[in-house]
Amino acid sequence: MTRIVIFIASPKHYNCMKIILFLSLTLGVCSAFLPDDELTKSIARGKDIYAENCVTCHMGAGEGVAGTFPPLAKSDYLLKTPEKALKAIKFGQQGKIVVNGVSYEGMMPNPGLDNEEIADVMNYIQNSFGNSNKTLVTAKIVETIKQKE
Ligand code: HEC
């Protein structure tokens, strides 16, 4: 719209139009970097993956089920040792783990996701339920996670 207006503007409005042109270009360039960044897109994809593969055990607010399914919300395991959390999501998790001071000895089956989906769901859980970790997890990082330490 702005660009069409510029062509039909009379010369006495020329300076004003130059300013509008400048502003519209600046805003256009800035908006390219704002809401659509990689992390935001990955989190959006991860939300659907969570709803399909995780919510039945870890629940809608990531609160888990006391004593059975550990929480993801404010989980020290997830936020302090993200590589271990990635391992659980990539291969499943069995055996004793401690989350926020509570011991669990359950079994999480391998969700069977590909590296891209694991990265997306990880970006989602790290930035939902009150959690925040702005480090972008990529499929490349997931690829480097091995089952044995
Ligand atoms: C069938 C139930 C079930 C499903 C489905 C499931 N989990 Fe789990 N999850 C568990 C259990 C049980 C543990 C703890 C296992 C243990 O005690 O060793 C766990 C542990 C975890 C942990 C590490 C501990 C923590 O709370 O921070 C993360 C992270 C995690 N799950 C994420 C996910 C994600 C993401 C998905 C979906 C892709 C998922 N889980 C699907 C049951 C499940």
Q: How many runs of DSSP E, i.e. beta strands? A: 2
Sketch the topology as an H/E string, one letter per element.
HHHHHHEEHH
The CATH first-level class comes to Mainly Alpha
Which class best fits the helix and strand makeup? mainly alpha
Unreliable stretches covering 5 or more consecutive residues: 1-8
Q: What can you see in these coordinates?
A:
The structure is a single chain. By secondary structure, the chain is mainly alpha-helical. The chain has one domain (37-144): Cytochrome c-like domain (Cytochrome Bc1 Complex, Chain D, domain 2), CATH 1.10.760. The protein has helices at 2-8, 14-33, 38-53, 55-58, 76-80, 82-91, 115-126, 139-144; strands at residues 93-99, 102-108. The chain has a two-stranded antiparallel ribbon with strand order 1-2. α3 crosses α7 (115-126). Bound molecules: heme C. Heme C is lined by residues 53-54, 56-58, 69-72, 75, 77-78, 85, 88-89, 93-95, 97, 99, 104-109, 111, 121, 125.
